[in-house]
Design brief:
Elements (H helix, E strand, L loop, with lengths): L1 E3 L4 E3 L2 E7 L2 E6 L8 E4 L1 H13 L1 H16 L8 H9 L6
């Protein structure tokens, strides 16, 4: 998946998922452009789930997911990050 903000433009793959106390911790996979750790609190999870359940776009995404996976174009990774960097410059850490 791709994460874009004013600070960074990264490809993020979900790697290890674990827990730290009551929180869910999601670490990026080895093929992500930068090592990342996401901490999700129970309140964050509840708000996110509520937003997804109320979103018609999310329901359409889920319903059309089999078609997108089976019939869509095969997206390659690799040099895409390098090519984006050439066009927009380096990530802006601060």
């Amino acid at each position: 998946m791709r994460v874009v903000s004013s600070l960074a433009d990264i490809d993020f793959g979900v790697g290890r998922i674990g827990r730290s106390g009551r929180n869910l911790v999601i670490e990026s996979s080895a093929d992500s452009t930068i090592a990342t750790k996401v901490t999700v609190t129970p309140r964050d999870a509840l708000r996110s789930l509520g937003a997804l359940l109320r979103s018609p776009s999310a329901w359409w995404f889920v319903l059309l997911l089999p078609v997108a996976v089976l019939g869509g174009p095969n997206r390659k990774t690799g040099d895409a990050w390098v090519q984006r960097r050439a066009g927009v410059g380096l990530n802006k850490p601060w």
